[in-house]
UniProtKB/TrEMBL annotation:
GO terms for molecular function: calcium ion binding; protein phosphatase regulator activity. This is EF-hand domain-containing protein. Residues 329-364 form the EF-hand domain. Gene3D superfamilies: 1.10.238.220, 1.10.238.230, EF-hand. The keyword Metal-binding applies. It comes from Megalurothrips usitatus (bean blossom thrips).
Amino acid sequence: MRALARSLRDAIQLRASAAAAVGEGHHRGHNPPDPDPDPRWAKAAADGDALQHFQLQPQHEEIGYTRFYYPQGKPILPQHLDLVLKKVAAAFDNFPNQQVPRHQFGVITKACDCPLYWKIPLFIAAGGDKAGYVDAASFLDYWRNLCASCHNPASRFLNILTRGLRQHVLPEDFIPLVQDVVETHPGLTFLKEATEFHSRYVHTVIARIYYCVNRSWSGRISLAELRRGNLLAIIKLLEEEDDINAITQYFSYEHFYVIYCKFWELDRDHDLFIDRHDLARHSDHALSSRLIDRIFSGAVTRGGRHKLREDRMSYTEFVWFLLSEEDKSHPTAVEYWFRCMDLDGDGFLSMYELEYFYEEQLQRMDAIGIETLPFEDCLCQMLDMIRPEVTGKISLSDLKRCKMTSIFFDTFFNLEKYLDHEQRDPFASQRDHDNEGRELSDWDRYAAEEYELLVAEEGGQDPQEDL
Ligand SMILES: [Ca+2]
Ligand SMILES: [Ca+2]
């Protein structure tokens, strides 16, 4: 831990000076934005839609609406595509032999009206990896063909990331993009030298992307999932926001740091896997052993394709665990814990299943001399809170409707948090807001608090001081 602490601490200090160097405001302790209401995301999404709109217009043309919408009868798509192709050709003209190398491919990417951080996937998809550069003629062909088959940003992104090979994105397809963010984003310059952390950061970001975007749990992000999620808007935001920690969705360095430190603490032999005894130590043995058994039973592993051993948890699986554990109102978290508690997999939590988990909580409370609530009384409280549609059993949609799922789940398997809830106004946790009045998610709040603690612990100093 000490070596990690030292390297990461150095990285943080470097980060601080890097942030100062680019004239960035200090964002540590500055509360991160909430995903939905941030107008910058709304803007990014709107920009994407604008592109999508004009690309879709030829469909009207094909079905005979051309004259109605475009009295002059001008085909819109070829005109716009020609404009883009001219712009791209002009961009290539600025390079010797019209050949653009990898590290300058952002220029071409922007000429194509794509978000900047599509640049390396685009470079690779256009065949740049072989020669180390892309030339004008082959790229213009490539782009014309791409636009002929992909009419909106989401489908173009999917095609670029998969190099046209698949209709869905696999986790490894994201590696070039996220690795490029590590290497070139101004908010991560401090991490450039610390190459040993690159892969950890990359895999953390990818795991977080799948946690939020891959709502089907398939391990493959479909075009529909890409369209519905906020990933494209967040990737666009990367070029507008120099402080990586202000991008709390997926890319925040501070969030990565918290997740990775938590894993490192548990993974004593540092083989990047933890077993049930390691996980039991999480958060001072807060979780019940019955729950931990369920996590390791395969109830919450995605796809299962690469699952070689059920008695250990990978780093990616830990990211899903921690995100679920610290924000139990996130839709993926509700599904995660529901899967764990639905012992017979019938799609309902029965009274028997609730009692099975509560029994261990009772034993643990008895053991430390805390006054307990009998199961029947606890059940009444929980049913009052959840109000299930079908009497006597709780469905996933019952829980998703309820605003207090964290209280529900913690009652059955997290003793520490359960006792916390008991002593707190149940609505208090939902009232935290950042400086700009946006409501914080449980995860954002947890990550910010833990980051402060970790930095104070490792550095032995107030994290504000190094600025
Ligand atoms: Ca291990
Ligand atoms: Ca069940």
